[in-house]
From TrEMBL:
An example Gene Ontology biological process: DNA repair
Domain of life: Archaea
Start and end residues of each stretch annotated as Disordered: 1-24
Protein name (database record): Uracil-DNA glycosylase family protein
Keyword list, A-Z: 4Fe-4S, DNA damage, DNA repair, Hydrolase, Iron, Iron-sulfur, Metal-binding
Record domain Uracil-DNA glycosylase-like: where: 30-177
Pfam families: UDG (PF03167)
Keyword check for Glycoprotein: no
C-alpha cells in the first residue's frame, strides 16, 4: 500500500503565489485529509465552500457543511466539524487562496493557481474525483477527461453520475446550496455503491475508455 505522507493539511508544502486575504483569515485553504485517499473531493474557493478561518476545506459555510454531511453519512469523515478526521478521502479547492469578503476569483486568478491544483491532484492520484459545483466540474472534465465537449454543465443532470476520465472516475456533485429533495440521497447512494464495488479498477478501465 502506498504511503505518500502522514501530513493532514497541505501535505506537499504548497505555497500560494499571492495573499489577498482579509485580516484574520488564512492566506489560503490548502488540501486536507488522507493523502493516500482513493476519493478526492474538489471544491471551488474558500469564499463559497469555507475554511477561511479554520484552514480546512468544506467547513464554516452552509455549502461546505452540507458536503461534509455527505462524507459523514458515507463514513469518510468523523470528529469535529471544523477539523474532521478523514479516511480514504482528500479535500481541496481549484482556487485555494482566500479573498476579501464578497470578492470572487478572476479568470486570471484561477489560471495563476492551476499549476498548484494540478500538482496536488496528481500527487494524491485518487481513483475517484468528486468536483463540487460547475466551476470545479468544468475544470476536472476539461483537464482530466476527453469528454468535456459532451456536456453542457447542467449540474442537475450531472449530479451523482459516473464519467470515465484519463485514469480517473469523475462523479460531479451539484452545488450544495442548490440541492433539492433527493440530491443528498443521490450522492450518498452513489458513493455507497462505489465503496461496495471494485472501484480500484477505475485506473485501468478509465485509461482505455476516457
Amino acid at each position: 500500500m502506498r504511503n505518500v505522507t502522514d501530513r493532514t493539511s497541505n501535505p506537499f508544502g504548497l505555497r500560494p503565489p499571492f495573499d489577498r486575504s482579509d485580516p484574520g483569515d488564512r492566506t489560503a485553504v490548502f488540501g486536507y485529509g488522507d493523502a493516500n485517499a482513493d476519493f478526492h473531493v474538489i471544491g471551488n474557493y474558500p469564499g463559497i465552500h469555507g475554511g477561511e478561518s479554520t484552514g480546512v476545506p468544506f467547513t464554516e459555510t452552509e455549502s461546505g457543511l452540507a458536503l461534509q454531511d455527505v462524507l459523514r453519512e458515507t463514513g469518510f469523515a468523523s470528529g469535529p466539524r471544523d477539523e474532521p478526521v478523514l479516511e480514504n478521502c482528500f479535500l481541496s479547492y481549484v482556487h485555494m487562496c482566500s479573498l476579501p469578503d464578497g470578492e470572487a476569483p478572476t479568470a486570471e486568478a484561477y489560471a495563476d493557481l492551476e499549476r498548484f491544483f494540478d500538482a496536488e491532484l496528481r500527487a494524491i492520484n485518487a481513483h475517484i474525483l468528486l468536483p463540487v459545483g460547475a466551476r470545479a466540474t468544468d475544470r476536472v472534465l476539461r483537464e482530466y477527461t476527453t469528454q468535456r465537449r459532451r456536456f453542457d454543465l447542467e449540474m442537475a443532470s450531472l449530479h451523482a453520475t459516473e464519467i470515465r476520465g484519463r485514469g480517473f472516475m469523475v462523479v460531479p456533485i451539484k452545488e450544495p446550496a442548490e440541492w433539492v429533495d433527493g440530491d443528498f440521497e443521490a450522492i450518498v447512494s452513489r458513493l455507497e455503491a462505489l465503496l461496495a464495488s471494485d472501484y480500484r479498477q477505475t485506473k485501468g478501465v478509465a485509461t482505455t475508455v476516457g
